Amino acid sequence: MSALHSDTEVVIGLEVHAQLRTESKLFSPAPVTYGEPPNHSVHPICLALPGVLPVLNERAVTFAIRTALATHGAVHVRSVFARKNYFYPDLPKGYQISQYEDPIATGGWIEIPVGDGEGDAATRRIGLTRIHMEEDAGKSIHDSDITGRDATHVDLNRSGVPLLEIVSEPELRSPAEASAYLRALRSILRYIEVSDADMEKGHFRCDANVSLRRRGETRLGTRTELKNLNSFRFVEDALDAEIQRQAAVLDAGGTVQQATLAYDPDQHRTRVLRIKENADDYRYFPDPDLVPLVLSDEQIERVRAELPELADRKCERFRSQFGLSLYDARLLTASRQLADFFEAAAAIHGQPKPVTNWLLRDVLQALREQGREIEDAAITPAALAALIRLVDEGRTTAGSARGLIPELVERGGDPEAMVRERGLEAVSDAGVLEGVVDEVLSAQAEHVQRYRAGEKQVLNFLMGQVMRRTGGKANAARVRELLAGKLDDR
Ligand code: ADP
Ligand code: MG
Q: What mean pLDDT do residues 180-201 have?
């Protein structure tokens, strides 16, 4: 963003489509699946066969309410499904059922961390405009047919899958903030278990709107919209490229044209797909096949009562209950599964500090290396607690224990048995250790003298010698005791 003047302000608003974790589709009993052969998860309703009528999925409604409540929005007791009309081969009805003038929720906010998070509690609230329910379209697949000619196939497995569209106010001020917002939103959706929000599977997709204006200006500049950004990195890079493009246009005295763009990561450039259509091009109107959705207050309160503790609250609790730093508490509560794992392991082990350290340092590193999340790891809270206890009791060394973590994460296992079977027991046997200590003391007479003359740091060298002779398996605390005892005694 080198081309940006310091008096230029970046304005970003995001539209996120999150796929809801329902078993069946929004208006049809067809199952929501992933990776099935084309057109196997369909029902006459998804195919728009004549005479079919949509039936609303109650679970999707619950999930929409839950999301609105978790983001402090107002749930409307009355909302309306509308037809958004356009022609595309993957849209057999010729319209998509969405919500337009009367969405299920408006307002609310998401808190994003600003600053580095290291001892820095600063957050900023990003306002939400609205949350509404809609159905997904099918998919066009462009490839060659059995005769080898170019062809386009239509797969309707995705047709009618329930989505939540979550629209932010234009309150984000940099690509980094946009990405922080997306992470915070994804974390919330996963905490409340309404969406897997798996970006690789397209469960969490983002369109980014961006414009520039002079600092102090209150009117918004003309925006462009970047379509279908499906990774955090991609969102940041695409916004960065588009900001540079708009800045160059404005610098040259030109005006930005409202348009929909795609991002080319190879060239780090954005490219115009089409000049933006207006909302009235879609000829929205209330769907006559669906009555307005009317909720009762009890229904909304029932969903509120079921809301789990969310990340912000949990983070505060971890700090006060376990005495953790803000930094550690934020890392541990970034995902509900990690937070649950931590609490379970800390309860079994009894001490939160070592559990935090082993989890955030060694387990997270193994997860990163194996490309896993804690919920797909084979290690259990009990196994981690048991491993740490073996170290606490001096039955194995920290180094040996650390070496077992990748395997525990990948395949699981009983730490005690692993330590035994692999000969990783620390040597604590007083007789064995004393023998080695005596050997070292007689072999290193010169160092012994220096120690006794007052050079106390020589103890570390002598420790090192004992560790070397035991192949690193000596219980370090015992060795130190034995050495100090013998050196100070004589
Ligand atoms: P649509 O794109 O469907 O027409 P909206 O006009 O409501 O919908 O805007 C969608 C998104 O664009 C929202 O997230 C909003 O905050 C953002 N947005 C609107 N105007 C601007 C602007 N001038 N600059 C940046 N973002 C904007
Ligand atoms: Mg839009």
A: 94
